[in-house]
Design brief:
Layout: H1 14-20, H2 23-30, E1 49-53, E2 59-62, E3 66-67, E4 75-76, E5 86-91, E6 98-103, E7 109-114, E8 125-128, E9 133-137, H3 154-157, E10 160-166, H4 169-176, E11 182-190, H5 199-202, E12 210-217, H6 224-234, E13 242-243, E14 246-247, E15 253-257, H7 260-275, E16 286-289, E17 294-295, H8 303-306
Parallel strand pairs: 15-16
Antiparallel strand pairs: 1-2, 1-9, 3-4, 4-8, 5-6, 6-7, 7-8, 10-12, 10-15, 11-12, 11-17, 13-14
Helix pairs in contact: 6-7
């Protein structure tokens, strides 16, 4: 689940919603109405972004899963978060048995899900009223506190993802998110053997996970090589399983490569830093394949931004590595 998941929504009185929504939005979301096909806002929408509940703003669908079903309504092969933000109910109205789709927090009527979707995408078709949705373009996601969803659009936009571990993820994220070319960051746990780990589990050191940061960046503005050189300045890569006072395998130094190209570059940069002579001990940074990245709890995300002056053992060292 995204770290940007909105706070629990408290649905207002219907009278308030009636003033807030258009008549069609109110009819669709509160009275199980259906808008006209081919005469609604998003049936032919092709821009990149997210579709959120028009009432609560909870994220529901991505443009990446939208397709033209020919029905005249917005159609999606799947929702975000494997239906965690939806509820499904049997609808026996009009002499039919259908599966109604409602939003979890606002309990808005959205539409129905059918089993006549594209077979290659799982065979489902979420047929949703435009009036139940609000579209948030990619370039406005951060403004709507939905920045972590930008990672979904990495391939489409030609962006890259770097996954790095160098001790407590608060300080690593704080220093990297400010760099030119960095689009978004998030902190979490990776490299371990426990599903859906929590902070309390990871801190025991028994799950095998490292506290890590994922960096979404534009390679036209920031090269992966330069990002790694920065990484080797903001933490001590010579101390096994330790950064400052933080000790344990969860604080190890590691580069989790996303591709063979990243693996090659990481190996080259590690050797370059090792041979520079600017560290008195050998570099112990692991270079290993990326695996499932589990988002850390919301209070960890952008922690030092929320808590200025909070604990960190990270700083940018005055190190100038030789030119590559």
């Amino acid at each position: 689940m995204s770290s940007d998941t909105p706070k629990r929504y408290m649905k207002p009185a219907l009278s308030e919603l009636k003033n807030k929504l258009t008549p069609e939005q109110y009819s669709c979301t509160q009275e199980e109405g259906t808008e006209s096909p081919f005469q609604n806002a998003y049936w032919d929408q092709k821009d990149d972004g997210l579709y959120v509940d028009v009432v609560s703003g909870e994220p529901l669908f991505s443009s990446l899963d939208k397709y033209d079903s020919g029905s005249g309504w917005p159609s999606f092969t799947k929702p975000l978060h494997n239906t965690q933000n939806l509820t499904l109910k049997k609808d026996r109205r009009f002499g039919m048995i259908r599966t109604e789709v409602r939003s979890l927090q606002a309990d808005s009527h959205l539409g129905h899900v059918f089993d006549d979707g594209p077979p290659e995408s799982g065979g489902l078709r979420y047929c949703i009223n435009s009036a139940s949705l609000q579209f948030i373009p990619v370039d406005q996601l951060k403004a709507h506190n939905l920045g972590s969803y930008l990672f979904l659009f990495a391939t489409k936009k030609g962006w890259e993802i770097a996954t790095l571990a160098g001790g407590c993820f608060w300080g690593v994220e704080d220093l990297l998110k400010a760099q030119m070319g960095v689009i978004e960051t998030r902190v979490g746990y990776t490299g371990g053997n426990t599903r859906a780990p929590s902070y309390n589990i990871v801190t025991t050191g028994l799950s095998g996970h490292a506290e890590a940061v994922q960096i979404l960046f534009d390679p036209h503005q920031l090269k992966y090589e330069d990002l790694l050189l920065l990484f080797f300045k903001l933490h001590d890569p010579t101390t096994p399983n330790q950064q400052g006072n933080d000790i344990g395998t969860q604080y190890r130094s590691a580069i989790f490569y996303e591709s063979d190209k990243q693996k090659m570059i990481a190996s080259k940069i590690k050797e370059h830093v090792n041979q520079s002579g600017l560290w008195k001990k050998p570099i112990v940074t692991e270079i290993i394949p990326a695996s499932t990245f589990w988002n850390a709890e919301e209070y960890h995300q952008k922690y030092l931004e929320k808590n200025p002056g909070g604990y960190t053992c990270h700083f940018l060292r005055n190190i100038n590595y030789p030119a590559l």
